[in-house]
Design brief:
It contains two helices and six strands. Helix content is about 20%, strand content about 40%. The strands form two sheets. It has a three-stranded antiparallel sheet. Strands 4-5-6 form a three-stranded antiparallel sheet, with no helix packed on it. The chain has a single domain (about 1-80), classed as Pleckstrin-homology domain (PH domain)/Phosphotyrosine-binding domain (PTB) (PH-domain like, Roll), CATH 2.30.29.30. By secondary structure, it is of the alpha+beta class. The longest helix has 16 residues, at about 65-80.
Amino acid sequence: NLLILDNNRDTCNIELRPNGIIIRFRSLLETFALVIPYYKLVTFKGEIGLYTLYRDKHFIQFRSDTKAIQKFLAKMLGYKADNAPTSIEDL
Protein backbone atom coordinates (compact mmCIF):
# COMPACT_ATOMS: atom_id res chain seq x y z
CA ASN A 1 0.00 0.00 0.00
CA LEU A 2 1.61 3.22 -1.18
CA LEU A 3 0.02 5.49 1.43
CA ILE A 4 1.26 3.40 4.36
CA LEU A 5 4.89 3.77 3.22
CA ASP A 6 4.75 7.56 3.44
CA ASN A 7 5.03 9.42 6.76
CA ASN A 8 3.40 12.61 5.46
CA ARG A 9 -0.26 13.50 5.76
CA ASP A 10 -2.42 11.41 3.44
CA THR A 11 -4.50 13.59 1.13
CA CYS A 12 -5.89 13.09 -2.35
CA ASN A 13 -7.67 15.03 -5.06
CA ILE A 14 -10.73 13.64 -6.80
CA GLU A 15 -11.44 15.12 -10.20
CA LEU A 16 -14.79 14.62 -11.93
CA ARG A 17 -14.46 13.93 -15.65
CA PRO A 18 -17.16 13.28 -18.29
CA ASN A 19 -16.58 9.49 -18.32
CA GLY A 20 -15.17 8.85 -14.85
CA ILE A 21 -13.06 10.18 -12.00
CA ILE A 22 -9.35 10.64 -11.43
CA ILE A 23 -7.97 10.21 -7.91
CA ARG A 24 -4.53 11.77 -7.47
CA PHE A 25 -2.30 11.33 -4.45
CA ARG A 26 1.38 11.64 -3.53
CA SER A 27 3.52 8.99 -1.90
CA LEU A 28 7.27 9.00 -1.40
CA LEU A 29 7.75 12.16 -3.52
CA GLU A 30 5.91 10.71 -6.52
CA THR A 31 2.44 11.50 -7.82
CA PHE A 32 0.08 8.64 -8.63
CA ALA A 33 -3.33 8.63 -10.28
CA LEU A 34 -6.11 6.07 -10.11
CA VAL A 35 -8.39 6.51 -13.12
CA ILE A 36 -11.85 5.01 -12.60
CA PRO A 37 -14.51 5.01 -15.33
CA TYR A 38 -18.04 5.42 -13.99
CA TYR A 39 -19.06 1.91 -15.10
CA LYS A 40 -16.30 0.40 -12.90
CA LEU A 41 -16.77 2.75 -9.93
CA VAL A 42 -18.14 1.04 -6.83
CA THR A 43 -18.84 3.11 -3.71
CA PHE A 44 -19.29 1.73 -0.21
CA LYS A 45 -20.26 3.61 2.91
CA GLY A 46 -18.77 1.95 5.96
CA GLU A 47 -18.68 3.35 9.46
CA ILE A 48 -19.88 6.85 10.22
CA GLY A 49 -18.34 9.12 7.60
CA LEU A 50 -16.04 6.45 6.11
CA TYR A 51 -16.31 5.87 2.36
CA THR A 52 -14.47 3.49 0.05
CA LEU A 53 -14.09 3.90 -3.72
CA TYR A 54 -13.27 0.69 -5.63
CA ARG A 55 -12.05 -0.09 -9.11
CA ASP A 56 -11.55 -3.80 -9.58
CA LYS A 57 -8.99 -4.74 -6.89
CA HIS A 58 -7.80 -1.18 -6.20
CA PHE A 59 -9.49 0.96 -3.58
CA ILE A 60 -9.07 4.08 -1.51
CA GLN A 61 -10.78 4.89 1.80
CA PHE A 62 -11.46 8.38 3.08
CA ARG A 63 -13.41 10.18 5.77
CA SER A 64 -16.30 12.45 4.90
CA ASP A 65 -16.18 14.83 7.83
CA THR A 66 -17.51 18.04 6.22
CA LYS A 67 -20.69 18.96 4.38
CA ALA A 68 -18.63 19.96 1.33
CA ILE A 69 -17.26 16.42 0.96
CA GLN A 70 -20.74 14.92 1.35
CA LYS A 71 -22.10 17.32 -1.28
CA PHE A 72 -19.24 16.37 -3.62
CA LEU A 73 -19.99 12.65 -3.14
CA ALA A 74 -23.65 13.23 -3.97
CA LYS A 75 -22.61 15.08 -7.13
CA MET A 76 -20.22 12.27 -8.09
CA LEU A 77 -22.92 9.61 -7.61
CA GLY A 78 -25.29 11.73 -9.71
CA TYR A 79 -22.74 11.80 -12.54
CA LYS A 80 -22.35 8.04 -12.22
CA ALA A 81 -26.12 7.55 -12.47
CA ASP A 82 -26.30 9.82 -15.52
CA ASN A 83 -23.57 7.82 -17.27
CA ALA A 84 -24.92 4.38 -16.41
CA PRO A 85 -25.74 2.22 -19.43
CA THR A 86 -29.41 1.84 -20.18
CA SER A 87 -30.91 -1.33 -18.81
CA ILE A 88 -33.03 -3.70 -20.86
CA GLU A 89 -36.13 -2.70 -18.88
CA ASP A 90 -35.80 0.91 -20.09
CA LEU A 91 -36.12 -0.10 -23.76
